[in-house]
Write a structure and sequence with these properties.
The protein is of the alpha+beta class. Helices cover 40% and strands 16% of the residues. Strands 1-2 form a two-stranded parallel sheet. Helix 1 packs across helix 2.
């Protein structure tokens, strides 16, 4: 990572909600796939009233991507 590069953190309030599942995560994933996000410098922090473990939240978002954006989803990416 270049000395002048700074880490980016996206903070999502209501991370377990519909907007995150349908719009925010697919948009961030699309930017990642197109190479428009700095590699290994992006953090996503989500806050919600629903309690999830890290793995359960990732599974929730993965299921949403597979269901709502099947053409854009690539598990290997």
């Amino acid at each position: 990572m270049p000395a002048q590069a700074q880490k980016i953190t996206f903070v999502i309030f209501g991370a377990s909600g519909d907007l995150t599942e349908r719009k925010l995560i697919p948009a961030l994933f699309s930017l990642f796939r197109k190479g428009r996000l700095p590699e290994c410098c992006v953090n996503i922090v989500g806050f919600s009233r629903t309690a999830y473990s890290h793995d359960a939240f990732r599974d929730h978002l993965r299921d949403g991507m597979e269901k709502l954006a099947p053409k854009a989803f690539d598990a290997d990416a």
